[in-house]
Structures are given as structure tokens and as C-alpha cells.
Fold this sequence. Notes:
It is a single chain. By secondary structure, the chain is α/β, with parallel strands linked by helices. It folds into four domains: about 5-170, Beta-Lactamase, CATH 3.30.450.40; about 170-260, Helix Hairpins (Orthogonal Bundle), CATH 1.10.287.130; about 260-420, 2-Layer Sandwich (Heat Shock Protein 90); about 440-565, Response regulator (Rossmann fold), CATH 3.40.50.2300. The protein contains 16 helices and 19 strands. It has a six-stranded antiparallel sheet with strand order 3-2-1-6-5-4. The longest helix has about 70 residues, at about 150-220. It is elongated, with a radius of gyration of 31 Å. The two termini are about 30 Å apart.
Amino acid sequence: xxxxxxxxxxxxxxxxxxxxxxxxxxxxxxxxxxxxxxxxxxxxxxxxxxxxxxxxxxxxxxxxxxxxxxxxxxxxxxxxxxxxxxxxxxxxxxxxxxxxxxxxxxxxxxxxxxxxxxxxxxxxxxxxxxxxxxxxxxxxxxxxxxxxxxxxxxxxxxxxxxxxxxxxxxxxxxxxxxxxxxxxxxxxxxxxxxxxxxxxxxxxxxxxxxxxxxxxxxxxxxxxxxxxxxxxxxxxxxxxxxxxxxxxxxxxxxxxxxxxxxxxxxxxxxxxxxxxxxxxxxxxxxxxxxxxxxxxxxxxxxxxxxxxxxxxxxxxxxxxxxxxxxxxxxxxxxxxxxxxxxxxxxxxxxxxxxxxxxxxxxxxxxxxxxxxxxxxxxxxxxxxxxxxxxxxxxxxxxxxxxxxxxxxxxxxxxxxxxxxxxxxxxxxxxxxxxxxxxxxxxxxxxxxxxxxxxxxxxxxxxxxxxxxxxxxxxxxxxxxxxxxxxxxxxxxxxxxxxxxxxxxxxxxxxxxxxxxxxxxxxxxxxxxxxxxxxxxxxxxxxxxxxxxxxxxxxxxxxxxxxxxx
Length: 565
């Protein structure tokens, strides 16, 4: 098959996947590719939640066979497969007369037994960091030899399909989150009724105290000793009432639209600062020490406000059930038991009275004011903390021993980075606030002769999960583009005025290179000149759009979202 035909097929695939969604688009492309390459079967194996456990998803066959040919491929114990590492070994070729095992023994056995294939090529659908499965080109009419041109085409199609599968997975994840939110709203409807009953119990005690102390104070206004005692108790009752009102506000989090999680980047030191401001005075009243421990340089992508509220409820409980001069310690670490650096662990430990096993199990049950036990931190605060942790798809446990204090431990999913350059203040962290999984595995080529400007762009992209390479002139950008496979880069940010070769000439040569992605890859001009003539010159040079320098983050990602599938 001629290269021009293959390029036309790839362009057709790219357009179809861009214009249409889901199974229908994939099957339309598979039919066209299968007929053109004279294949018998074209199918995908998709990853499940368990790594290296794959099952068939889309299947095109020239002549449909009878029976269910859905296959499950379990590579978890296949040493050859794991050794090859599909994240890097992106293509494997099988022939029935070839005894070499390329980590395909499980796949070849399943395909041969179910469809009678005699040769196939399996291409990893992968970005180099993210792996979503295999694209298999199969033949069952005898021996078949694949030349380098065929293999290159298959790899490029697998690369395009990776982007589509990854996009669909992101959309599916969004739909799942919305469905979960709807379920939680329904559950929250029932929980709200219980909360209203419970909160009346929480409010009644401090209100009764305020009413009683006011009456006593009114009759002892001329007795300084009794008056001061009443004022002290009034202060305590007001603080208790404020805590109860705060809990009452928190109940709205478990109701309706406010179930959505508000994600942002932050440092543990920011969390410590705000927690100390709000809950530090509570510890100061009893001369208690509040300590924090966390790894320097760690930054976290999660819901700052909800984590702060959870810690606040647990610290309030720890202070309440600890003596004068007690110690409360908050520890933030990466969960070492997690397979990936995607779970963060918080520990809140005190040296208070502690509790026995029966009481410890009791505080993890739903709150009931009629069953509160002495010494057990089972007010609304603990109940709300459990709900917030569950909302964030986390878990909570309690460890305690009578006379030795109590430790609350909760673990929540989060993106964690301890290797990222130190962030100076919260304003810089907020620049990465809307970071999205949709950019993971994508790569952008930055052509910018101002090194500092290039570093700023790379940093902005990195905060959103995008990889980037940098060139300092148009010639270097052109060489980098040509030296990689088609579709290696998802976009080019091209400065218009650069030495050696300007951006417009580099863009013109890219468009005229004849490569498969030459007419597809988005090229965005970077220029401080906003005149109409400059915009027309960029457009004539093959650029898709223009960004004004210095580049604002909002406009940058709006443009990326517009042109990157």
C-alpha cells in the first residue's frame, strides 16, 4: 500500500474521531482500514481497573464468525510481557510460524483459538506514560509479512486511537462522578432530616446554658465573684454555640449541588496556616500544643476547604477530650501502602483520655444524640468529618487506648508532587488550580527564543499535566518536529519573530513536509504584534490562531482546549 494512501487513511481517522464520538466512529474507521489493508480482523483490547488485565472492546471482522469472541487477557503473571513494559515497547509482531515469544503468548493463544488468526500485529495504545490497551491488526488466511511502512502506519493509528480512548475514558469518568453526585444528593435528602433532628440537640445545650447564666447574672450583678463565673460560663457556651452553628452550616455540604468537590493546588503549610488561625485559639484556651509535620516541598491537588473542615472537626474533638497542657499533632504523608503516589494520609493524634475498643467502634457508627457515650467524640463534628471524607472517596479509621490518647487517620485520593519546584506563595499555586486529567500524556512543542518566556510557558503547561519540549528558533523547532514520529506532538506554540528561521517560515515548512500530521497538528502563533496584517501573515503561513505576548494563562488554555482533541 502506498504511503499516500496510508496518509489519507490517517487523515480520515483523525477527522472521523474528531467529528464523531464513541463506538460508531471507531467501527467506521476500522472498516475502512481493514478493507484497505486486506485484514480479516481489527480489534482493541482495553485495560480494566486492574493493570495488565485486558478485554476486547471494539471488533471488526471481514467475515463475521459465529459465537462470542470476547476475550480477557490476563498478563499479571506473564514475566515476558511485564519485562517488555508496554509503556515503552509499543509494537509486537506475531506469526504462527514464529516461535519467539514477544510477551504475546496469552494474546496469540486466545486469538488463534477464537478466530484462527495466522499473523497479527499488536500496537500499544500509549502516550509513553499512560497505557489504555492494544490495537490488534489480524490476518487468518496464511502467512503474512508486515513491512516497516505497514508497522509505522499501525503505530500512528494506535497513537491516534489512544487519544480517543483516553478522551472517552475522561468523559466516562465525568459521567460517573455526576451519577455519584446524584446518588449522594438522594442520600443527603434522607441525611438532612436526621441532621435537623441531631442539630437541635447540639443547639439546645448551649442555649440553655446562656439562658440560665443570664438569669443568674441578673440576680448577682453586684457580686463580682459570681458575675465573673457566669461570664466565663457564658463565653464557653457561646463558643459551643458557634461550633454547633458551624456544624449546621456544614450539613448543607451534604445537600444538593454543593456535593461537588472544589479542587486546587496547595501546600501543607497553607493548610497549617489556616487551621491555626481558626482552631488554634481553641487549643490556646486549654494551653494545648498544636503541632504539624509534613514533607518539605510537597504540594497537593485536592479540596483545600473540605480537608480544612475535616481537620478542624478532628482537632476540636482532640482538644475537647484532652486535658490542660495536652498535645495534638497533625501529620501529612503519602500513603506508603498505595501502589501509586495518589493517596494522601492525614493523622490527628492527641494524648488525651483515649477509649476502649467498644467505644472506638461506636464512634464510627451514624450519629445518634440519644446514644452518646461519656468520653466518646461522637458529636456532629465527627459525623460530618466522616461524610466529608466519604464525599472525597476516602476512608477513616480510629486508633485508641484508654489512658494513651486517640489517633484519627483518614486517607483520600489526591495528586501529590514532592519533586515540583518550590512554589513561593498561594497565588502561584492558584495558577494551577484548574489542572485537569485531560492533559495527561499530551505533549506540546514550544518554539520561543526568549528562554525565560519559554520556561514560563513550560511551567504553566506542566501545572496542567502537559509535557513540553523547547526550541529556541524556527530551525530547531522544525528539526525537532521532523525527528519524531507523526502525532508525537499534539500542538506547537510558535513565536513569530525568532533568529535563524522565524516562526512563519518554520510553520510553512511543517505544513509542506508531507508528513501524516502536517496538515492536522495545531500551530499557534505567539506575537506581541496584534495588527491585522500580522494576523493575516501568520494565517497564510499555516498557523491556526494567535496568542498575544506576554501569554495569559486563561487565553492559553482556552486556545489549547479549542484546538487539541
